[in-house]
Predict the structure of CMP-N-acetylneuraminate-beta-galactosamide-alpha-2,3-sialyltransferase 2.
Amino acid sequence: MLLRRKLCVVVVIAAILFLMLASQSIQRRHFLPVSANSRATPTDRGSVVAATAPPAVQNKKLTLPPPITTRFEAQEKKEVKEEKSQYAQRPCSCLESCISDLDGSDWFSQRYDPEQQPILRETNNNFDPAALKWWLALQRSSKDQTLESVMSEMFQVISPPTMDFKPLPSKCRSCAVVGNSGNLRQSGNGNLIDSHDSVIRMNKAVTRGFEKDVGNRTTHHFLYPESAVDVGHGVSLVLLPFKLRDLEWLTSALSTGQVKMTYMRVRDRVQADKDKVLVVNPVFFKYVHDQWTEHHGRYPSTGMLAIIFALHICDQVSVFGYGADKLGNWHHYWEENRYAGAFRKTGVHSADFETEVIHRLAKDGKISLHL
């Protein structure tokens, strides 16, 4: 009996010890890490944070602050932007200037009309009746024909022009207008003249034997029946019609050869590329007479018409061989002209006033004048 009681006591004690051990094991497994973390030293806390940092924080990219722009750099950028904007708005791509840019010269802007149509076209010429009446009275012709009928016949022989002479922001068209003055002698301007995109010559101009001074390229040759010459292949014959008969002559000279007289005997035929022939608009004569020569003389000279024509088809114009030579003589560079003063005395053209206009164009930077 006593033994049984002792065994019961031992069993109860063993059960109590077992329960105590089990309770401690459960406490260590579930609650010890929390206690350890809450009691961690500064060193332990740092280690725990480093070990358990969220991946999103570890992989976050650093954003650098924008570069600091100084006041000087900001001003420089602004000036470059304004310069690019101004360049983009210019009518042509020439570095120095564009003729059709009307800023900078009130004198020029009051005279230059960008809407003028320098070339006669098959249709849509929009003739001003007053200008046409003035032109028809310059040099009387037969009244048997009308301008419309003459033009119709003419454009059956030559090709109607299709080019557009308006300036383009992507182009810089340079033109040399070469007169026939004796001041071209010994000038040495030949290479400079030939370096231009277009080279305009007039009347009976010759180049052979004078290449060093006048160059050898020609893209446009201005003439009228009384000054006609053969025009080389690839060159545009540009007719200056001072009368209706001149249009009839052009049609004939490139086809039948029937017209042999105007107010004097003229060449009945000329050689020229029919698809490159251009005819100056009669209304353009009146425009030059009104706006540029201001009614000095009866009508503008060939040289003056060529310069103003160039102002309307080019972006930069250089002028050579105009005016008297260094001794004051008026003659052609290829000959001694014994009628040197005739041009100044006829009253048909005003050489003095036209010279003033040319020098003013140079002063205002619209042409480059080589004397």
